[in-house]
Structure prediction request, 283 residues.
Amino acid sequence: MDIALEAGWPRDRLDADYTARLTCTDAEFARTIGDYARLSQAAHDLPGKRLDIAYDAASGETCDLFGTAPGAARPCFVFIHGGYWRALGKGHSAFMAPMLAARGIACAVPDYTLAPSVSLTEIVRQCRAMLAHLWHNADALGIDRGRIVVGGSSAGGHLTSAVASAGWQAAAGLPDQPLKGQLPVSGLFDLAPLAASHVNDWMRFTPDEVQALSPLRNLPAGPLPAVVALAEREAPGFHRQSAAYGAVVGAPVLTIPDRNHFDVVLDLTSPDTALSQALLGLV
Prediction:
């Protein structure tokens, strides 16, 4: 189906279809957010960490890098956090770093300025600046610029595919396709339905943003390996969005059973899950 047509649906249906909190109980949600932070703290015990790397002079935003090694250029997974563009941060986002470091893979987790303090245009600009910084400074940071995979959850899934979209790289001094792959999880790929839902109460999307920042309308340059993942217990809108984006980019859609919108990404803490195997395959 054409996801953009959802924008004509009744607001109450769109609100329900894009309310991630309906996929779990309040207790499950609180426990999962606590697990994000607790498991991310373990990454700070890893050797080779670099904290608060300034990647964008205009905003002052920073990222943390884990799992590097002296004299090595390691592949790097960049994880962009979710929170409907208005919550969470890098302190909740490094829970997969120990699993990756054990396999010789670095992990970068950025902060970005949260809405409604800034627009989605600015958030996307920051995430693209972050990738450009990592790519241009790969040698100094100990990462392999030819093996950078970007992933993220929910709003971070949107930002993942907005970074993968074509059209901005040349101005940042990057090749047309600087990425090795992308792994959006529970992502949002067309903003039109969200602009007609409760999400617009804090995002205030403009028509230009809906067009320019919807990954379904702005595809990657050339073939880019991808896996589109989501939880079995996602809200209906997330299922439709993932199916539509996977079909357009020719990527498999991986549905993780018995997981909700929030706990699905915790599967990245174990190398044996389907989600981790998808990531390791992309790297």
Q: What stands out?
A: The first strand starts at residue 50 and ends at 54. The two ends are 31 Å apart (CA to CA).
